[in-house]
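I'm curious: can you give me some protein's one-letter sequence along with its backbone structure tokens because I've never seen that pairing?
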Amino acid sequence: MAKTVSIPPPGFEGLTPDEKVQYVQDLWDYVVADASKVPVPDWHRRILDERLEEYRAAPNEGKAWPQVRDQLLRDLAERKHGRD
């Protein structure tokens, strides 16, 4: 039987928002350290299959990752400056 873990873990509430995000990231990195043991739901596989099929049908319709990343970074910078 699985052990019950308190949510949030002890001390979590005392962390800053940045520390909480880092904690969660570190926890995720720990969980996926052996990715072969992380189950992938069937619905994830179906979505990936659908997207791969769409790509194969029209490989030139998407954008390259560097373009998408740069646009996301620009959008993020604009939002950040809008809050200043």
Notes: The CA atoms of residues 46 and 82 lie 39 Å apart. Residues 12-83 form one domain. The helical segments are 17-31, 42-57, 65-83.
